[in-house]
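[scheduler] slot 2 assigned
[scheduler] job type: sequence-to-structure, two independent chains
[scheduler] chain ordering preserved from manifest
[runner] begin chain α
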Amino acid sequence: MKADNIKNIISDIDHLPYRAILFDGTWGIGKSYAVNEALEANPNVCKISMLV
């Protein structure tokens, strides 16, 4: 997955059959940046970063 797709997926969350999303990918492709950008206008979310 490219980080470009993250914003589209998050914007469609209300139309998807699930309420949790996991974005996985190599370090440095912009996952956190894209998620933060997509969610900045939505105060009704919870973000969890899970580092192994």
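[runner] end chain α
[runner] begin chain β
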Amino acid sequence: MGGDPGQELFLSYAREVARQSDIVEVGIPFSDPIADGPSIQASGVRSLLSGTRVRRVIDWCSELSGSTPVVVMCYYNTIHRMGEEAFASSLVDAGVSGLIVPDLPLEEGSSLRRICARMSVDNILLASPSTGQERARRIASSTRGFLYVVSRYGTTGEGTSLPVQAVELVRSYRQISTLPVAVGFGISSPAHVSTLAAAGADGVVVGSAIVSRIGAGQTPGEVGKFVASLRGSTLRAAAIS
């Protein structure tokens, strides 16, 4: 989460996580994060209270993107306030590779997708367990960079076990996607990563398990070791954090 656990410390954590990952996802804090559970909500509150603003997060991304591909995650209100063209342009200037907007449905995102495609920013789309087969195919054909598969119903958050449908979701989406398939929501242990990799996932997205450790006061080095343990458990997946 951009700006957490404070503007002075954020880059120390982000650089350590990026060092252990193939892609680093940076969130822009928002007051109403409808896709996020308690850990990321708390992280966003800490960031906002420290004075973090949108353009500052994008500036931080420019400091990370030279060594590791950066994907920005934010809610559509943030983009709408700045304007789609201006927002995408700011990502290009910062060297950002991709954009995830979890509250922008496929049917309403064509304008942003066109702008991102023109500016060579991958607009990464999400598919969930409730996505019907025909709509899943449209999402898989419209996403860029990779297909983000949501492993469970509900919001983000650490899970003690993988949802029963996660493995089958990976297999089904692998059949319809020509791009890499990455799985997120509830992925929080090396065992989770190993299971998903064995099922054919190309990547895993880990957020809550990282920001909760930051919130608990772990050092950047300790958080980095946790990310390294996730990556070390992969069979063929690239760890996305």
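[runner] end chain β
[qc] chain β: DSSP finds eleven helices and nine strands in the chain.
[scheduler] slot 2 released
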